[in-house]
Every structure is written in C-alpha cells, then in structure tokens.
Amino acid sequence: LKIISLLMFDRIILAEESYKRKFINLSNKIEVVRNFPVSSKFNFKNKTENKRNLVVYVGVISEDRGIKELVNAIIKFNTKTEDCLHLDLIGPVNDDDLKKFILSEVNSSNSKITWLGQKKYSDILSILTNYDIGFSALHDKENYRNSLPTKILEYGSAGLYSIVSDLPISHKYIREGFNGSIVKPNDSDSIFQCFLKIIPQLKEKDRNDIRRFVIDNFSWEEEYKKLENLYSKI
What we know:
This protein is an alpha/beta fold and 234 residues long. Helix 2 packs across helix 7 (188-202). The chain has helices at residues 2-6, 67-80, 96-108, 121-127, 142-145, 150-157, 188-202, 207-217, 220-233; strands at 12-14, 30-32, 53-58, 85-90, 113-117, 133-136, 161-165, 180-183. The model has no long low-confidence stretch (mean pLDDT 92). The strands form 2 sheets. It has a 6-stranded parallel β-sheet, sandwiched between helices.
C-alpha cells in the first residue's frame, strides 16, 4: 500500500544516501538532498579565549551514543596525565539509570564534567565555537553505520575538531588528523589514546581550515540549489 501511494508522487526527496536502498523500485523518482548544516549560522572564533581543553557532546545523551566511554576516557585522562580535560554534556537524558551514572560522575569530577541539560538550537549555534573538541563516537549499530553524521558537520562549522567512531560513513567526512580522529566504537581506551595524541597539538590547529573544509565540501547552499532546481521542474 505504501509503495502504491508513493507512485502517485512526482518526486521523492530523501535526506541522505542511505535511504535510497529502501526505494530501489522508485529510483527514477528519487532526489537526495542531504541535510547539511547552514555553516554561516554558527558563531565562529579562530582562537578560543579559554586556556583549558574543552570537550563537548551535543544531542540526546544515551549509552549507544558512547557517553559512558567518553566519560570514562575523560576520567582516565585526568587521572593519568598532567593535562586536564573539561567535558560539557548538552542534551536530554531519557534513561533513569544513565542519568544516575552521569550525575554521579558530575558530582565526583571536581567540576571537570558538567551536564548542562537541553539547550535551544540558537544557543548552541552561539556557544559551540567556544569548545575545542566535539564528540560523536557512536556505537556500531545498523542505523548509525551509514547515517549522515550531521553532528560532525556542525562541530566543524564551529571550528571544532571531532572524535568519531570507525563506521563506514565516518570516512566520507573525516580526514584523519585534520578535522577529526576516528576511534574504535564502544571503546573508552581508544578514546583515551586519541586524547593523548591530539591534546598536545590541539591549540596549534587552524580552526578556520576545519570550518572551510565543511563549507567547501558539505554545503547546505549547494544542496538547496538541487532542491530549488527540482521544484522548478515540477
């Protein structure tokens, strides 16, 4: 019934390439317009004013998005090195057990881990550039393997270096050592080792290069042209 109803439409617009396999029999009607961020809306500073190393996670906070691995890696880094990482978690927690875990770690972290709760997107656009590293190392689950990693592009639009999981889609958006590092999924030690490697280099990175990489290669403006062109033909 769903397929029959779709035949009635002139065109079907998909937000990412991975959806195409669900519409194989309707390939002549498909147009992919990827949901890239509008980079120009992100506040950007080439140099952060803070002297601390700031890591941020933005989005729904859940175990399958690597939160426990991130927290454990932060704690291990701060315990075993002379440097210090500060982590801000921004987003809702819908699991009560996970919420208890986060609150416990926040309370025992001596202000090095903070849960800021959910913020308006407009506020995130403004403050994201104040951080150094954005975290998006998801677990290896089917729905994450080929889904457009919008969060990485948002981090990059604000000039942040990203830590992401070794999933098939990640390699299309991350140039290792340039705009991000790829770590093993569901592996806190891999994240810890990544911190050890990149923190000494972090302040020397040109954040504008990271931002330009997103703007030049993953531009919503270009995707909008595709959408505009499609509408003009219908």
